[in-house]
Each structure stands twice: as C-alpha cells, then as structure tokens.
Hints:
The structure is a homodimer of 333-residue chains. Chain A is an alpha/beta fold and 333 residues long. Chain A contains nine helices and 15 strands. Chain A folds into two domains: 4-125 and 302-331, Medium-chain alcohol dehydrogenases, catalytic domain (Quinone Oxidoreductase, Chain A, domain 1, Alpha-Beta Complex), CATH 3.90.180; 129-277, Rossmann fold (3-Layer(aba) Sandwich). Chain A is 25% helix and 26% strand. In chain A, β11, α6 and β12 form a beta-alpha-beta unit. The two termini of chain A are 15 Å apart.
Amino acid sequence: xxxxxxxxxxxxxxxxxxxxxDFTLATLPVPEPAEGEVLVRTHYISLDPAxxxxxxxxxxxxxxxxxxxVMRAGAVGEVTASKHPGFRPGEHVAGMFGxxxxxxxxxxxxxxxxxxxxPLPRYLSALGMPGMTAYFGxxxxxxPQAGQTVVVSAASGAVGALVGQIARIRGxxxxxxxxxxxxxxxxxxxxxxxxxxxxxxxxxxxxxxAHCPKGIDVFFDNVGGDILDAALVRLARQARxxxxxxxxxxxxTAVAGPKNYLMLLVQHARMEGFVVFDYxxxxxxxxxxxxxWLKDGSLKSKEDIVDGLETFPETLLKLFNGENFGKxxxxxx
Amino acid sequence: xxxxxxxxxxxxxxxxxxxxxDFTLATLPVPEPAEGEVLVRTHYISLDPAxxxxxxxxxxxxxxxxxxxVMRAGAVGEVTASKHPGFRPGEHVAGMFGxxxxxxxxxxxxxxxxxxxxPLPRYLSALGMPGMTAYFGxxxxxxPQAGQTVVVSAASGAVGALVGQIARIRGxxxxxxxxxxxxxxxxxxxxxxxxxxxxxxxxxxxxxxAHCPKGIDVFFDNVGGDILDAALVRLARQARxxxxxxxxxxxxTAVAGPKNYLMLLVQHARMEGFVVFDYxxxxxxxxxxxxxWLKDGSLKSKEDIVDGLETFPETLLKLFNGENFGKxxxxxx
Lengths: 333, 333
C-alpha cells in the first residue's frame, strides 16, 4: 500500500470564480479504514457545477464544505482494503470520495459498479449522478408528453445532453441551447435533437420563437439568467420549468432573479426545483432505464476526461467558461 | 331612461402609477341593446390590481385595453332594458361592464346575482372574482393540507383576506402580511389568522422565521418583490408558491425577479401561477363553497366602497399605496 495521499482541500471561500489560491494540495498519510469501512483508490473524479455552491457558507440542501476539509466530489475507484464484509479489494465502487487519491468510506455509502459493463467514467455520467438528475428531473419534475416541445439549456453538458436524448426517446420535439457551432452540430447530428441554438452567436429569444412555434412545454434549465428569462416569455399553457441549476449565477455575488416570472401567471405554468438526492430511493429504476437505452444505442454518453489531480483548480473552470464538452472528470491515476 | 352615460376611457398608457391625465371622463348617449343584449345600470364597480396590467400594451392572458376604449372593470348592476329572453328589467347581474354608468352586454356574458341573498358589493368580493381567485388559487394551485403553514401577502386585501380564512377553515396555520397595526389586528382578531406581520414596521424575514418555525408550506403571493424573496428562503420541503399577483411591481418599468428562486431547487418546491378565468368551468363549485361559509359565519367579507364614478383615478391609487381596507369598489349610483 502506498503511503501517501494527495488531497485538494478548500482553504478559502472563493469570491466569484474559484482560484488556485482558494485550495491547498496537501499530502497526507493514506488513511486506515475502521470497522465497516473500506479504503478506495480513486480513478476518476467528477467535476460538477454544483461544487461551486458547496464552497459557499450558506444554507442549502447539504452543508457547505468546511475550510480545511477535502473538497467534496463524486468519484469512481477501486477497493484497496476492506473492513466491510460486503466489499473486497479489486472491486469497483462509486461514492462521494472527494478530490483525493485515497478515501475511506462506510460500506453503506458506496455503490458497486461493473467495470466490465461500461467504462468507469460512465458511472460519473449517464450511469451516475448526471444520469439520475436527467432521468428524474425530466420525467418526474418536467413530465413531458409525447409530441410536446422540450427545451434544455447547457444542452451539451453532462445533464443537458442526457435530458435532450431522453426527451427524444419519449417522443418529444427537442431544442437544445449550447455555446458554439461544434456543440450545436453535435446535438443535432449525433444526439438527434430537432434543433440547436448557439447562444453565443444567435438571438436566443428569436431562435426559441422560430424553433418552438407552439411554445415551450418543458424548459429544463441548467443556466438561469438571461436564457431563463428568454424561455419564460415563450412558455406554452401549463408549461413546466425545471430548475436543475443556474451555472450563469454560481459565481455571482448577487443572483439575478427571473424578471419574467409573471409569465407563470399568464400561462398557468409552474417552475419547480429538485436535487438528485431527492430521488435516491428510485435510483435503481433510473439506472435500469439508462443502461437499457445505452445498450440499445438510443442514448449516447460523452465524457471529457482531463489527466491529473493537480490540474483541479483550472480544470474546474472549464465548466464555468463553457470549455468542457461532455461530462467533465479528472483522471486521478 | 336617462339620456347620458358617463364613461372613463383609457386615453394614454400610464408610465408608473396611473394619473388622472391617462384617462378621460366622457359623456356619451346611453347605448341601445341589440338583439340578445341587455342594458345594465352599474351600481358598484370593482377596482382590482390587475387593471394596472390591462393598461399596458403587452401580451398577457387577455388583450390590453385599447386607447379610447372604456376602462375594463367588473361590476354589478341592474338590468334596465333587455332584448335577451333570459333577463328582465329589475334583475341584478354581474359582468365586465367597465367604468361607466351604463353598459350593454350579451346575455351569455352575464351572471344573475341575488340581491336578497347578499349585499350587492359582495358579488364583487367573496362571491365574485376575488372569491373565485382565493378559492381555486389556494385549494387547487396551493393545495394545502390540514396542519400545514400557509402564508399570504396583501392579507387584508380582497383576495388575501379570503385566502387566509379558507386556509383556516381547512385547518392550516395561517400567517398574514399586511401594512399597519389596524390591518394586522383585523387579521388576528376578526378573521382568525394565527399571526399577522406588519411589513411596514417589522423585519419581514425575521418575523416569518418566528411565526413559521417549521417553514412555509404554501406561500400565496399577491405582491412580489422583497416579500416574495423573504418567503422563498423560508420555504419548507416541497412547498408551493402560488403566484396570484405582484402588486409591488405593477407600476415598475422593470420587474424585479425573485433572486432567491434557487430555493425552489434546495427545497424541491414549486412556484405556480394562475388566472381566475382558468377556473371558469368550476365557478359554481367555488360559489357554493363561499356562500356556505359566509352563511355559517366562518368566512367574513369586507368591502371598501368609495362613492362616485368621478373619483376613479384617485380611488384606484388606494390599491397601490395600501390605503384600501377590504375589497375596493366604486359606488356608481
């Protein structure tokens, strides 16, 4: 067993975009698992927009990361030592292991993953939290009907690309918003979206009007800000706005509220938020569906893997400047 | 039949608060009903916050009032001539008669009201649009359960006072927001609210925290702005925010969006809007319930009647500066 564990600790609360100076790359002894725990060597570590919120000292759906603690992150890895009867060395597991090379975790906080059934990074994307987020957020909160128009923002991102594909599988007309011609072409040509709007070069409001002639029945929002406002004025009657995230606002000190929210009144529409953990009891249902669609080829999953734990502070920024293309993760070993 | 009809016409689109110069008090011949129409002498004319929106030239749930047209308003009055087989002179009716002394209306756009069963102004409050708004907005959109905490803004207003009482009747804990000690005392002592918060003299956020120790299950919002934001951060899990209106924003050129809307995500809550006309097919249900509660004394209705059609531009402002106390209406004759 190697003796050292490199670990990214949050050591200052970021103002605006996180900087390298907000973190410390510490080198610590590899921890020992206690009774009921296992030691995991992380292989792929997930980078998610939600991490930005976890850095703030505010009330939210989970406590903030404390200063001096390892930065919270989901990851997949391999069991290297076990004091839990359910896990043996060599097995692959997913869990909230943090931005580090080794983690100890309680056995009941782990999920076994089958490295033969899918590449490991897929358990951080379609078969992981983004997959569950897309599946339950779209189908349970958004509740689209076949033939309805579904619009998704950050549509080439980890969650958005899955949302659009699930909507297509369910018989909806799907319009995605993404930044740049390459991402838009990918949505249309590879993922089967009916239309893609390049928010960097197009008038989003006008393009939504053109591509959604009967209005938007479900708007699945990952970005907030001006794009949310543009969608609100084009809602159909009884539309559902799914609030999954607001990446445009996470680095702002003052969140811009949706100034067109009174369109909810005009259209008898609703705006509803959720967190994937709300659906923990139903993950098996979601995993079965996602695995089935991956297997029959109706769903594609794309991962954007960056090599090296030490790149974390800069790699994280790819999420906020739109540089990532697919699910962003760090290869830790 | 008198020969003249005084009529308030919208002749300029208001910027900010409406002014007398935005309207013209015209004197016209009393109109003649055509086949299928009746002539109505208006007795009480309803003044509603929604009227401010109808003055703007924007897309909404109904077309704006055109310049030169009679200002749209609900009213109750008496049939003075009829060319419709279903109506006879002397009968009392409610409808969208506008701000004028006489109106012609198609018979199928009228509702007969029983002047012996309730004072006429009540058909503009608990037994009219505010009553239907409160009944369906609270019970259908807000869907409160007995024992849950319901908070209502503009709680001494036409809709808010009914919302709070219906919530109390349904076994909820009820907290109202109103401006001034007299209105707050009325909510507690006369209407049976569990608590009232004076938004003019109290810290609304702190008071909500004190009066809603388990969070807000249903927030019925008539005002928007800072009060909506204060409520959002105190939502309970799976709360419902009912967007009925936003009187704090109606005279603003730029609506302030709810900057705390991401609390919907944190609490798996929803924000849903509606317009009373959405429930037209179910008014009979609502009227029966409201009439029953009025009759058994569990529901009180308070009207604030101002004498004189000519006072309209100034009387309307009572809604926006919080001077009205109960359902505001003009006595036309």
